[in-house]
Amino acid sequence: MIKCNVTVCGTISRAAQMRTGKEGKAFMSMSVNVVIPAKSGINKTVEVSVSKDGGSQDECASYPVGTRVEVAGTLTFHKKGDAFYLNLSATGINTFDAGNEDGIKGDMEFRGTLGKKIEVKTDKKGNPFCVFSAYSSEKNGENYEFTWVRFLQFGEDKKDWMQPKVGIDANGELQMSVYNDRLDISCRVSELSKWEKNSGNSQSPNVQSGDGETTLSVDA
């Protein structure tokens, strides 16, 4: 499980329109392009699919292609084969000046499984910090899809229970960047605890992940 409470700033790439869900509930739908800054290489544009309960045709007319918007809501990630999707359930949409910078900022709630690399490093002042990666899985037919997140926990050593394949609950600041044209999802940890997994959860114990440092390719 990965759930992020965020604010997304970007440009509408698919105009708002009214749709009806499976239960007959109306909602407004649009897509927003967001430029993510690169650590290495060039910046990358990702598309965020936005939905908001309610709305009207008149409200949709306020959000044509090219409009700069700031959208608050809950962001989730979904991976299917080589495709990676960013879906935002919006609680509010505001327009703003074109000069404002793009970005996806907010907090992450994560529940998943630790990868192989769990390292303790020190900063320039000699203070310890822990670096590790973990994955969250979702079932796709008979297979599982895995979304990896890189975590940094400052001021902490590695806990004894932190071992490969152990479950974790983590909360912290969402950080998104691009490295060699791939989207890198990271979290600066504020809270971390062990998650006692059970046989009924969706986490597969047999992921072939290497060291868990793989970043995710996004088709924009």
What labels describe this entry?
220 residues; mainly beta; 11-stranded mixed β-sheet; globular
Written overview of the protein:
The protein has 220 residues and is mostly beta strands. Helix content is 2%, strand content 64%. A hairpin with a 5-residue loop joins strand 1 and strand 2.
Quickly describe the structure.
The chain has one helix at residues 57-60, and strands spanning 2-20, 26-36, 38-40, 44-53, 68-80, 83-95, 103-122, 128-140, 143-154, 167-179, 182-195. It is mainly beta and 220 residues long.
- Look at the structure and give the mean pLDDT: 86
Give a quick account of the main beta sheet: strands, pairing sense, barrel closure: 11 strands, mixed
- What's the multimeric state? single chain
The percent of residues in helical segments reads under 10%
Radius of gyration: 19 Å
- The beta-strand count equals 11
Anisotropy-based shape:
globular
- Are there runs of 5+ residues with pLDDT below 50, and where? 199-206, 208-220
| End-to-end Cα distance | 23 Å
The helix-and-strand class reads mainly beta
Q: Which percent range describes the beta-strand content?
A: over 45%
N-to-C SSE series?
EEEEHEEEEEEE
With helices defined by DSSP (H or I, 4 residues minimum), what is the helix count?
Answer: 1
Helix and strand arrangement:
Blueprint: E1 2-20, E2 26-36, E3 38-40, E4 44-53, H1 57-60, E5 68-80, E6 83-95, E7 103-122, E8 128-140, E9 143-154, E10 167-179, E11 182-195
Parallel strand pairs: 3-10, 4-6, 9-11
Antiparallel strand pairs: 1-2, 1-5, 1-7, 2-4, 5-6, 7-8, 7-10, 8-9, 10-11
